[in-house]
Amino acid sequence: MATTDKASPRDRLLDAAAELFYRDGVSIGVEALCRSAGVSKRSMYQLFDSKDEVLAASLERRRPWYEAQLRSPDAEAATPRERIRYVFRRVEENAAAPGYCGCPYLAVLVELKDIEHPPGRITTTRRAGRPPDAMDA
Fold first, then answer.
1. Helix runs in 71-112, H state only
2. Domains in the chain, please, with CATH?
3. How far apart are CA 42 and CA 97, in angstroms?
4. Which of 25, 26, 35, 71 could form an S-S bond across to 131 if both were Cys, CB 3.0 to 4.6 Å?
C-alpha cells in the first residue's frame, strides 16, 4: 500500500492562509482560500469556525519561526546594543527580499482595526511576547 506525503487539509489551509493573507491582505475570500488550499468550504468549516479562525491559527503556527528570525544566535552573550543591531540587520535583510510585505502581524492588526477579532488577539499576544533579545535592550 502506497503512502502519500500530502499535507492534511488543515495544514494546507494554514499554508494557503499564510501566503494569501500576507500577500493579498485579510480581505481574501473564503472561496479563494479554499481553492488555493485544495480544500472544500465544507472541510474548512469543519476544521475552523470562520475565516478569522483560520487566519489566527495561521499566525499562531508561524509565530515561532518569525520570532526566531529576530532572535540573535548569541543572545545570551550579546550586549543590549548588539541585540538591537541584530534585529535591525535582520529586518533590513528581510525587507530586501523579493515579495517582502512587512510584518504579517502588524499588517493584520492594521487591516482589522479590532484587536478583539481572533487574529487581532494573536497579533497583540505576539507583540506582548516579543523575543526578549529584541526588547530587553
1. 80-96, 104-112
2. 9-131 (1.10.357.10)
3. 36
4. 71
